[in-house]
Amino acid sequence: MNPLPTAYLRQLSEAVGFDLVGFARAEPIPPESLRSWVEAGYAADMDWMKERVAERLDVSLLLPGARTVVAFANNYYRNDEEAQGSPIARYARGRDYHSTLRDRMKAFRKAVQSTYPGIGTYGSVDSGPLMEKVWAARAGLGYVGKNGCFITEPFGSWVLLATLVLDAEVDAYADGPLADRCGHCRKCLMSCPTGALVGNGRVDARACLSYQTIENRERAVPESFRVEMDNLVFGCDICQDVCPLNRRPVFAQHPRFAPRAVAGLGVLELAGLTPEQYTKFIPGTALARAHYDGLRRNAVYALGATRDSSARFLLEKLSGDSSELVRSAAQWALLQLLQ
């Protein structure tokens, strides 16, 4: 088969809704970076990052005969009035991005296979053993910044990534990552309240508030991190908000990125969510990953971090909650009101 024309693939990518697309040769990834990150303990208890390492480093183990990795990116930045000051990270305020990007990649794959029958593919949106940022960099979409976020020229770091492996070649490949534009800037490193940014684009998940509020669902958050959760209930945008490369964000027009009703809730309302309200507001959003008790626990910590005296009645009620996570968080938050 002749190489697939990238002009056609770029046109198709735009048609299904992606903002950026690039192409990289499906060559193995040197193991040092991933293995040193895992061995340093920076993956915390995200065991899936420690598993299937060989497949993460060599996509031909995921798709025999792999020749090309197609990297996609979508800008998701919104600054809607109804979500101003939301304690939810921007990427999670609208519909779950996994569904949005997965739908677009499925449409792309279906069109390619319709035009070129017999092509094999393997795709992932932040769930399979694919190193999305590595492939996006190799495909020329940008580079990994000091804060560990993927930075593009048109959209800064306000992007979501998807990756598709093909067992066919294309007629042109990227030369590699864009030039690093971080330079000597250290604003993200200095602004991280928990010191999670350890340099060279690496993040210590154990200290990252995004990890603590999303992936750490079963245990209490260490107290030294709780006190930094002022208006942070799900995810953290601090290192992106301070980044000079994000000074001129581009508004994402697609309605799937528009904030849902949950983005209009404040910390007190999230802490007091009833099961019925959870069922009303959360399904179909990324917040579901924190689960009911994890989300309430986070909001209670945030109330304690701000020492919000108006939350006393709710905290007293939650100190007797059926969930140990929420109960212990409320008891801690009440102690903060006394200080």
Structural classification: alpha+beta
Total strand count, please? Answer: 8
> Count of helical segments?
14
Distance between the termini: 71 Å
Quaternary: single chain
Could you give a short account of the major beta sheet? 4 strands, antiparallel
Q: List low-pLDDT spans.
A: none
Strand content: 5-15%
What are the main properties of this structure?
single chain, 339 residues, alpha+beta, two-stranded antiparallel ribbon, 14 helices
Please provide a written account of the structure:
With 339 residues, the chain is of the alpha+beta class. A hairpin with a 2-residue loop joins strand 7 and strand 8. It has 14 helices and eight strands. The model has no long low-confidence stretch (mean pLDDT 96). The chain has a four-stranded antiparallel sheet, sandwiched between helices. The protein has a two-stranded antiparallel ribbon with strand order 4-5. Among the domains are: 161 residues, no CATH class; 75 residues, no CATH class. The chain is elongated, with a radius of gyration of 21 Å.
Summarize the helices and strands and which ones pair or pack.
Layout lengths: L5 H11 L3 E6 L6 H8 L13 H5 L10 E8 L21 H19 L5 E4 L7 H7 L4 E2 L5 E2 L7 E8 L20 H5 L5 E3 L2 E2 L5 H6 L8 H4 L11 H4 L25 H5 L3 H7 L9 H16 L5 H7 L5 H14 L2
Helix pairs in contact: 1-4, 12-14, 13-14
